[in-house]
Design a protein that fits this description.
The structure is a single chain. This protein is α+β, with helices and mostly antiparallel strands and about 575 residues long. It contains 24 helices and 16 strands. α11 links the parallel β12 and β13. The longest helix has 26 residues.
Length: about 575
């Protein structure tokens, strides 16, 4: 094979691997028009869109200024780069190792083409086996892997056809079979297993995942070893299918079974990092494919550690425009089991209220450190500062540093010592955080209760109201009545305040709508109230007595319990 041909193959690989629509969408707003995408040309001024991008042909063309070319030509023109610089920029941003296809590796390139061809042959054989195996199909049904999921992700079974194809390839391509780790001690690595082909972002098969069909078979999961094609730290399972779904929101889960289960329930925007830790290489692979990234790992201790580790990786890449959130599942669930137990509606509700990365950052630090103690507050600050130092964006770094002091209720400029500020001078009132949101929730609860029919209201509790907020006073009056008379209608509740000053409070309430039940709205309001009480005590945490420290711990525990209620599915 000539060096010119190798250069051609290398560039062809790059233009096929990079989605031209995703790349151009970073600077041009594109809208689907038939088989193409249309937008305003970035290379000349125009009011009517004439800039067309074909995803299938991997080509752009402007009917106004006649600019045209592939993704490399676009990057050259858009960023004023040389051909080589544009190629290097794309390869770096999309985590594409062109060295694997360089002019000095002709033999390697030929070998990889043969490997892709062999793996594809095995996939086709395994799909045939699946359709002919009642046992494997029954297992798919028990795991609720619908036919669409099996087809879209090319799920198969290593039965007779797979074994026959493998035997044929051992004779014709022995080096390929060896390099791909398909045999272990002269036996198929995936004998009698459900197969999950792993594809790169081009859709080419690069490895297999597999699962046993019986509960007692060990090990339960077996994956391909790392090979010249397959590096776990680089691979995102389902990225090829995600590209086809054309979603702006990506849900990152731990394993391929979670991806397949969620797909079966209608979520086509999920990918997985193959059960390994999330890496910078993973981020480079996915960062241009969506606008909002939601991490949803298992709810157990290992899953929560993996979530925290992923944020540690992302901090260096976060910008003010980054939209990254975290969905924390209950301890005993992964995405697959949660959807099975609670349904896809409940899961979608959790997605909708996933925690933004910055809130998750401080929330997790609070769980790692006992901020009721001076040394706990010190260790909290030390870890927070160390992590914030890894942030490259100066604006975010400055804001996050300020937030450390805000969360610990420390005035950064000059915090008076106990000698300068006597205990008797403790400020009782601290500026309430998120007052607008608290008022909005109160309005929602007032409207919800006042418009209810004579249905039973249960699990209602009083709302802490240290500042005598009239909205909360009104709500507590109604809640007290509902605790004793749970079937009371909204009209009766309104009649209770006729002729009082509270009726004026009620009559000026705006029409705020919500889908949340009263118990969740009450939990949200109580969280704000308890946080105010915690803030009041935290200002002089160092001078608190034993009883006050005990009370502070109780308030924090109470707040954490309420947070678990407030994030429950509707």
């Amino acid at each position: 094979m000539s060096s010119d041909h190798c250069r051609f193959e290398s560039l062809k690989f790059l233009t096929e691997a990079v989605d031209i629509v995703h790349e151009i969408s970073k600077t041009v707003t594109l809208k689907k028009r038939g088989q193409s995408f249309l937008g305003l040309c970035p290379f000349h001024h125009e009011k009517t869109p004439s800039f067309s991008v074909s995803q299938e042909r991997r080509f752009f063309y402007c009917f106004g200024c006649h600019a045209k070319g592939d993704v490399i030509a676009f990057v050259m023109r858009q960023h004023n780069l040389s051909f080589i610089a544009a190629v290097e920029k794309l390869a770096s941003e999309y985590n594409i190792k062109l060295s694997d296809y360089s002019t000095t590796q002709t033999t390697k390139s030929t070998h990889q083409i043969a490997a892709h061809k062999a793996l594809r042959s095995l996939v086709l054989a395994s799909k045939q086996d699946l359709e002919n195996s009642p046992t494997a199909l029954h297992y798919c049904q028990t795991r609720k892997l619908c036919s669409a999921a099996r087809s879209n992700y090319h799920i198969g079974y290593s039965g007779p056809a797979f074994q026959m194809m493998l035997s044929k390839l051992i004779k014709s391509e022995p080096d390929v079979i060896k390099d791909q780790g398909l045999m272990v001690r002269n036996r198929s690595r995936f004998h009698d297993r459900l197969l999950f082909p792993i594809q790169n972002n081009e859709g080419k098969v690069i490895a297999f995942g597999s699962r046993s069909l019986t509960a007692d078979a060990k090990p339960k999961y077996v994956n391909s070893p790392e090979t010249p094609l397959f590096k776990k730290r680089d691979v995102i399972y389902g990225i090829y299918q995600f590209k086809k779904a054309e979603s702006t929101e990506m849900i990152i889960v731990e394993g391929y079974m979670d991806v397949l289960s969620l797909y079966t329930y209608g979520l086509q925007n999920c990918v997985a990092c193959m059960g390994t830790a999330f890496t910078q290489s993973h981020w480079k692979t996915i960062k241009y494919y969506a606008k909002h990234f939601i991490f949803c790992f298992d709810g157990d201790r290992a899953g929560r550690q993996a979530s925290w580790q992923s944020l540690n990786v992302l901090l260096a890449h976060i910008t003010p425009l980054s939209k990254v959130s975290y969905l924390l599942l209950p301890d005993d669930h992964d995405p697959d089991s949660f959807v099975r137990a609670h349904g896809i509606e409940a899961f979608n509700a959790l997605i909708k209220h996933a925690t933004p990365w910055d809130a998750y950052f401080f929330q997790t630090l609070s769980e790692h450190h006992d901020i009721t103690l001076p040394m706990g507050r010190a260790s909290y600050m030390e870890e927070a500062k160390k992590l914030i130092e890894t942030i490259k964006n100066d604006s975010i770094k400055q804001i996050m540093t300020h937030e450390i002091y805000k969360h610990l209720n420390i005035h950064k400029e000059a915090t008076p010592s106990p000698k300068q500020q006597a205990p008797s001078a403790r400020p009782y009132r601290i500026k309430q955080q998120n007052e607008r949101e608290r008022t909005r929730i109160a309005y929602q609860l007032i409207n919800s209760l006042s418009q209810k029919e004579s249905t039973i209201e249960t699990e209602l509790t009083h709302i802490e109201n240290p500042d005598d907020n009239p909205l909360l006073t009104l709500l507590n009056l109604w809640i007290q009545h509902l605790i004793s008379h749970p079937r009371t209608s909204g009209k009766t509740l309104i009649s209770l305040i006729n002729g009082t000053s509270l009726f004026e409070t009620f009559s000026t309430t705006p029409d705020e709508k919500t889908n949340y039940p009263p118990r969740i709205l009450i939990a949200k309001l109580r969280i704000y109230a308890i946080q105010d009480l915690i803030n009041n005590m935290m200002v002089t945490c160092e001078t608190l007595g034993e009883e006050e420290r005990k009370k502070l711990k109780e308030l924090i525990a109470q707040k954490n319990q309420l947070q678990s209620i407030s994030t429950q599915p509707i």
